[in-house]
Amino acid sequence: MANYKDTLLIQTTEFEMRAGLKDKEPGIQKKWKEQNIYNQKLKLNDKKPLFVLHDGPPYANGSIHVGHALNKTLKDFIVRWKNSSGYKSPYIMGWDTHGLPIETAIAKTGVDRKKVAPEVFRDLCRDYAIEQVENQKKGFARLGIFTDDSVVYKTLDHDFEMSQLKLFAKLVDKGLVYKDLKPIFWSPSSETALAEAEIEYKDVKSPSMYIAAKITDTKAWNLENDFAVVWTTTPWTIPANQLIAAGPEIEYVLIKPEQDNRRFIIAKNLLDSVSEVVGWENCKVIKTFLGTDLQETKYAHPLYETKISKIVLGEHVTSDSGTGLVHTAGGFGEDDFQLVKSQKMQAFAPINNSGHFDVTIEDKDLEGVFYADANKIVGTRLTENNNLLKMKWITHSYPHDWRTKQPVIWRATAQWFVGLEKVIPQIVEQIKNVKTKPEWSQNRLKSLIEDRKEWTISRQRLWGVPIIGFYNAKQELVINSEIVNFVINILEKEGVNVWFSKPADYFLPKAYQKQNFTKETDILDVWFDSGCSNLALENRFKELKRPFDVYLEGNDQYRGWFNSSIINSVIWDGQAPYKQLITHGMTNDESGKKMSKSIGNTVDPLEIANDLGADILRLWVASTDYTDDQRIGSEILKQVGESYRKIRNTIRFILANLGDFDYQKNYQKNLEEVDLFSLHNLSEFKQKISQAYESYQFNTVYQLLNNYVNNELSAFYLDFIKDILYVEATDNLRRRQVQTVLWEQLWVLIDTIRPILAHTSEEIYQSLPAANKLASVHLLDLRSQNFIAPAKLVEKWNKLLIFRNEVNKALEIARDNKIIKKSFEAEIKIELTKEFTEIKTITDLSQILIVSEVSFESVGEPTYQGTIGKVTVSLNSGSKCERCWGIFKTLKTADLCPRCHSVIQNL
């Protein structure tokens, strides 16, 4: 028996089945860089409309993590798509390079910022930040990000710092910036003020104390051995108590427990709950009165009995919890501060920058004690003087420094603020014009802005942009537009570092010199830094004009960068910096747990890239619903890898079967109906893909792609054309026609995967049997050709798919019943229902169904019966062609069918 394998047109391609991404990708990336593909594409797109995705700056500290990879890859999808679909879309990466983490990194090397010259310490910080930026650049390059990493912005760049200071000058000019003593979040571990965006909440155990303060004078009742009861979870603030606050409309009672010789004041509706906690029994109500009756009642400090304070009214007081009377320490809370201020008192905050009691506490037991350690001392002292009614431990949510992970406190300190009340209405109006994805997040940003009255912009650190301000000999703040602009002119010429090395007079106009002025030592908040990025980019790149098209960041940035950016932008010139905000969730491990180095469940994106390939990581990003939290782990990546292999193998099949195809010849005339149907489905697929990319629904792209590859191609069109491709003569018209269809399929698949599988699409393009190719697939625009088949043809062939599906069910039954082994052995007889009679008009039906013979006739006992009618499957008793494996009633020769014999004769 002859072997006809070598006569079949089973072709090969240099596009390998085994991807080997980890080995190929670095070489592809090297060529992109050497050939300057990104800038080549921008030049090709130079006359096209701009589309600007503005990159939010990650912090320049440490290697990139999987959250960075998700963020940058999502942005890359957008930039690559836009650059191929009619836009010029530059992508300028940025970095946040000032602030505490960098100072901390330098401190860990043994450098004490308080013991070296400021400019020396700042130079060390600058060098470290730049080193971190370069490290992260390499990480992003390994992911295949489409950019020029020599054109970036850093918040330490001189022109960036100048843009920032010019905004500060505008704040001064508009009267929006001021310095005041106010309680703010203070981090003892970082020794600096923090913004709300730098706070995270964690559950902690705290001592909950019910404390009695002896009443010394009142007009509300006849005084005996009476006490006001307050409740606190911060006993360390009791030494700084200045007032007790009562709610004006709250009903209070004076009660006498059976087992105590003292009487106590408490909110009436809290009597039962407090009695249960402290152990009071059979409480007798002596008198009931409103909070207004308690006004000006005097009490002795629970720790310092000679210190007399008073009860005042506070609108913030409720009777929902506690005792209805609020311990008030003006230096350690917002409501407390405002209440103390309303009484013409100075807020008392005897805690230093590191969180220790200072000498102003005037208590030797507490001086130098860390605030949290003072809880025990306070509890002991209260017990000794019989003012501690009850202490128990409770678990509650408490604010922490998001960098050090240590608790923060409210502390009244002198800080710089931007007053927002005048500009909030204008900002809210701008937000109404901003599109958001998800849509509901517009209201989130709006509510976060509306709730802000001011913005703390000062930090007590060294590595950052200085706040321009001076103090006269009386330590009074001196700041105005003349001084600020004078200083900016000097810093623009000499650099920001000079502020930290020269005396005040160096920066002052002559009229202010030689008056013993001193400089401000605070720096600007890093959120103020990054919030100026839109202004800095517009100033540096004259082509870029705000508002930019898209900001895409994690959903925590509504409180952070989105917030600071729109505040700064609206203050600058009244407009929002962005047209659309897109947010993604956080990335968790495979079981949905938050990633943590201490737990050991982190996933390193560079390890994935160097093990599985960056394209696998990129495909994972596309597979997720990024608007929600995502999961990643070995099993998930394994599933993504399987999806990748199916896509790759499908494209490999197409490439292999185009090896001898001349795409410059036109074979599109007189295509068969099945070809037209396939091209029609291709155009519909292409349209859906375009819509998904334009709406940033990358998981829809992923789903559409997988469905199309597996169902439209592998399971249908590619399956039946194998016979045509392998068996027909090389230049057989039918073979050339299906190759034409494959050529069009290939290009749409390339366009589809280009933004996501950036490296694989390049490998495909370089494997194409085509002349005059450009240097890279990423220099191409999308192909615009569409194929729309007549509606009746589409309807007919959609019925064919239903028909084919039911025939396959019949074949499966026949295989199970041992009637046939392979489908090509089957002879099919079908009694069609009226709805499917037009199936008879389809030519080459046996080839499409991959069976030996199909006939339409009455059927007795069917193998299968369904919506198409009755189907009988039997074994074709004819002879097998040893070349094409078809079963025929008669062969041309002993082992060849007429078609194969003809092909062989013409070889």
Question: What report would you give on this structure?
Answer:
The protein has about 900 residues and is of the alpha/beta class. About 40% of the residues lie in helices and about 20% in strands. Strands 6, 7, 8, 9, 10, 11, 12, 13, 14 and 15 form a ten-stranded mixed beta sheet that branches. β9 and β10 form a beta hairpin.
Instruction: Using the alpha-carbon principal axes, give the shape.
Output: elongated
Strand count = 33
Radius of gyration: 38 Å
What portion of residues belong to β-strands?
Answer: 15-25%
At the first level of CATH, what is the class of one domain?
Alpha Beta
- Looking at CATH, the homologous superfamily of one domain is Valyl/Leucyl/Isoleucyl-tRNA synthetase, editing domain
Report the end-to-end length measured between terminal Cα atoms.
19 Å
Low-confidence stretches: none
Q: What is the average of the pLDDT values?
A: 93
- Name given to the CATH architecture of one domain: Alpha-Beta Complex
CATH topology name of one domain:
Isoleucyl-tRNA Synthetase, domain 2
Measured as a percent range, the helix fraction is 25-40%
Describe the sheet with the most strands: 10 strands, mixed
The total of helices stands at: 26
Structural class: alpha/beta
Cofactor: Zn(2+)
EC number: 6.1.1.5
Subunit structure: Monomer.
Keywords: Aminoacyl-tRNA synthetase, ATP-binding, Cytoplasm, Ligase, Metal-binding, Nucleotide-binding, Protein biosynthesis, Zinc
